[in-house]
Fold these 3 entries.
Entry 1:
Amino acid sequence: MLVAPFVYDCIQAKIAQRLDFAAVYMTGFGTAAARGFPDLGLLTMAEMVENVRAIAHAVEIPVICDADTGYGNPLNVWRTVREYEEAGAAALHLEDQVWPKKCGFLAGKQVIALEEMVPKVRAACDARRDPDFVIIARSDALAVNGWDDVERRCRAYREAGADLIFVDGIRTLADLKDYVARLGDLPLLYNGALLPVAELAKYGFKVTIHISSLMAAYVNFRDTLRELKETGQVSVPALGRTFEELTELMGVPAAEALAKKYD
């Protein structure tokens, strides 16, 4: 099972690569949040592609990307796939929500008809130039219509050519078990952190995108600023070494060496 932590900027992606993660997941929730917006379909395709390009150029590991609903009809999906692939993405997922969409764990989602989504999946598969570019079909129908509709949709999306199936909104262990019981014969992606990675791997998922990295980044930064505000200082062990590690991670020594070559 491939584990891809949530990232929304280049430094997070570089840390993941340094720690030997095999891939990262460019979160739409985090990409929107980093620009000051809620994950309610307020970012455009161009803004998302801009972040895809930045992250993909910063690391050598594959970048799995949120592509929302594809930003329109099958023709829009075609262009979205071409733009994401050109920007350096290794995979993207398209969801069957109406536009504007919502974060998969928010209440009040709505989904388009299966008959509207299947052509979008087909268009996405046809649009890719590289046959190794991974198309992930995501369904948000669980909270809206229940498992019977989810299963019908996911099997249709797989039949339409999707490489991976992604049911979002898995909130409980019962949901997780139903996910595998109903669709375990398909290649599945899981989004969440209900169980440790070793336990999740036993369920047969091909990919897990791990939201805990996004939540931890928020909590740690919030608590650090709270400490600074309340005490006037921040406890950072070995501050000097941490700064050196960060500058090395961001390529300062390599850039300086390159500059000397042309002095």
Note: The radius of gyration is 20 Å.
Entry 2:
Amino acid sequence: MNLLSSLDITRREIDRIFSLAGRAGEIGVAKALSGKSVALFFEEPSTRTRTSFEVAASKLGGHAVYIDARTAQFSRGEEISDTAKVLSSYCDFIVARVNDHKQLTTMAKSSSVPVINALTHLEHPTQALADCYTMIEKKGNMKDLKVAFIGDIAQNTANSLMVTAAKLGAEISLVGPKACRANPIYVAAARKSGSVRITDSVGDGLAGADIVYTDTFVSMGDEAEAKRRMRLYSPYRLDRKALSYAKNDALVMHPLPAHRGAEITADVIDGKRSIVWEQARNKLAIAEALLRYLSR
């Protein structure tokens, strides 16, 4: 089994992963990956995702090997399928961060071991799992929870979050400029499980929200368009005024890295309603749970 897409994972599988995440430290966990290795093949920079999987492998008794794709033979034209065949002959898991989602699926087809999506241009499923796990920690469950994503509603984190949260019973509100169109495939998939509303009105979209979520306005690969994107998305900055439209006890989330003064203001991300640090901490719990789940 692989974890390539939030579209593929079932509610039952999510519940099982969350159950394992809540049982970190139990007897026998420290040896769950004894003698096993995890290849971390990353085409783009990472702080939290890379570190969480490295630490998770170590805590479970295994060993992580980091491969920077920019200094590997992949950067000189080696086929991703060849890379996958070799890595899977050395290691027991491949955690891959690659730009093109098609490269990830090719890697999975060529690998003889589980492949985990650590981010592509389309999705970030491990982040969505950590996000929803955090929401449940803070709110008890996600049934009828209103989750508002504000900003760039067409990017990978938004895609995975809306699908995963909807499967868990949440109502989704996507709030962004009309020029930014949410991916119809992910919207349709989320609507099969729950309610998804798309609006360009900050007040309307955040009204009654239990969770207000934002992410960078300039994702990896979009740096050349930074000025245009900042002009487009600046009206959707998560500041105190925008947050005032949500419920009085609404919580603030951001997957990091954050750019204070750009997509979110310092007083909001560092304020009492922010659960950003708990969200980041839970990436480790989910990394451990996924490695345990996929090692069955």
Note: The longest strand covers residues 37-42.
Entry 3:
Amino acid sequence: MERASSPIASTFVALALTGLAAFATAAHAQSVPQGWPDKPIRLIVPQPAGGGFDTVARILADRMGPLVGQPIVVENRTGAGTLVGTEAAAKAAPDGYTLLLGALSNIALNPGMYDKLPYDPLKDFTPIGLAVTWSYTLVARKDLPQKDLKELMAYAQANPEKVTYASAGRGTGQHIAMAVTEKLAGVKLTHVPYRGAQAAYQDVLGGRVDLFFDISSTARPQVEAGSVRALAVSSKDRQSFHPDVPSVMETGVAPLDMESWFGLFAPAATPAPIVAKLRADLAAVLARPEVSELFAKSGGRVLKLSPDETEKLVRADVERWTKLLREASVTAE
């Protein structure tokens, strides 16, 4: 037979439950500063609209906004490569209303290319999370005599500076991918910089330049159309959309492992509860199958890393690429 509860016990239980409810409410209130966000959040993209940076930013902003509770507005801040926009984000108020679309280029590559960088990627930013990564694909003009990368590098070794390669500009990812491969392979090639990938492709397709190490998302249509030949990918492993194309590392030519990642970063002093909320919302977006499928169409691979894994990867890439770029004497000037 159950024992009847006394009025004192009932009162004690009621008070206890009230206390727990109050504690839970207080804990929830402390999860983010009161009232945040009460206005749109801006996402600074340090590149023009329409490019890889901008595409990733808009995919994430459109889907995270409803979760955060305010629109996330993409703001393209261009100039000096990626320096102007990245510096603006670094110096923004750390109040949760400014984010940066950070990538391998402006976070990990710039420190090795500039003697005086106006921001410190490790000290001035807190990673919210890395979202997606793409490999680069080394393509060659259709009539290149050498059948594969190993044969081509042997030719380059015997004929210094006779092999030419295009880039979308000095200091771009396309330039760095080839310059570092050249350094690691111990050969001398001739760099032909262009103003953008479109101009570079015109001369590769026309047979006037031998090679172009382009981001895989834009190289893929050219390869599938038969306009160019794919010799290798920059990632450590082969890519699913180029199953017959080896990695540079696999060929034995050079120990290259390069993928261009993109993600969200906040000014370093942004309150921890806001950072935690943004991390949770970004993770929820990246967990959606439609987002993975959207990126996969262009050869992108969604990243699902913990905060610790993200910070370790970013730090490791900053240190690794700074060393490689300085050894290869690659600069943005």
Note: Residues 7-29 form the longest helix (23 residues).
